[in-house]
Structures are given as structure tokens and as C-alpha cells.
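Supplementary Note 3. Input sequence used for the single-chain structure prediction.
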Amino acid sequence: MRWSKLKTTIENHFAASVIGRVALHATRYRQAHDDEGRGWITVDRKEAWNLCTFRYWRALYETKEKFDTEPDVSAWEAYYLSAAEIEKQGILSLERFYITLEDYNNLSIKQALDSKSVLIQALAMLDKRLGKRRLRSLQLVPDAHPMVRYFYTFRLKAEGIDGNS
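The predicted structure, written as C-alpha cells, is reproduced below.
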């Protein structure tokens, strides 16, 4: 799916209280390979989350070094274990940003809230399918990613809901 259509589709999922305040962005680096660039999310025109391919590759390399020292882990397994670990930290390449956004389009709100993807969980906090009643009663897990917490708190404030209720 083309970026402009994907962006519009995802932003059309946003609750009325956050439309115009939250925006998705993406760019490809001109001199680089096709899949290098960055995606980012802005809140009130300020960057809230940066998903950069170069940052992803650096984190992958650093994390992979840790797995490379384990005797029973092949290089291939180390790569996949590293990729899974940094995605749990919310570090994505531009390509994974696109893929995750496309995946989000095919999920119910329950599936999005239960997803292992930090980006999908964060987007679920902004989704109009997450109604005020459910938002009010939602209990985040203690180790929820900071971006999930950020968008949860942002949505509560945007809806005028006291986070302690």
C-alpha cells in the first residue's frame, strides 16, 4: 500500500479527540537503499516517537553481540532473537514501521490491545474503537512500554477522563 493511503487509513482509525493532534510521518533517505529512512509520530506537532532504520541496525548489531557469545545460539538464531528483543523496546526500522501499520489495519481493537507489538498497542490507545468506557477501565500491565503509557495518558487527557477513576 502506498504511504499516503496507509497514513490516511491509520489516521482514520483515530478517535475524534486526537484527530489533527497526532500524525504519522515517514521519509526515505535519498542516497540510501530503498528500505532506509525513518518513520515518526508527532503529537501537537512535536516528535513523540522516532522509528529510524539506522537506529534499528545499530541496536540490532549491539544486541546481537550479546547473543553471539552464547555457545548454543547460531548466528541466524542470534539475529532473530536480537530483532525480537529490540522490537519489544519499540525500536523499528522504516520497513517494520510500514509492515506494522499494514498489520494494524487487519486487527480488531482487542487484537491490537493484546498485540506483542509496541507500535500496535500504542496505536490502539488512539483508536476510536477503544471507546471511552473501555479506555476508562483499561489497566495497563506494570511493564507496559513507555510509548504505550504515553499514548494512553494522552488519550485520557484528550477525552477529559481522570486517569485515577
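The chain has eight helices and three strands. The mean pLDDT is 92.
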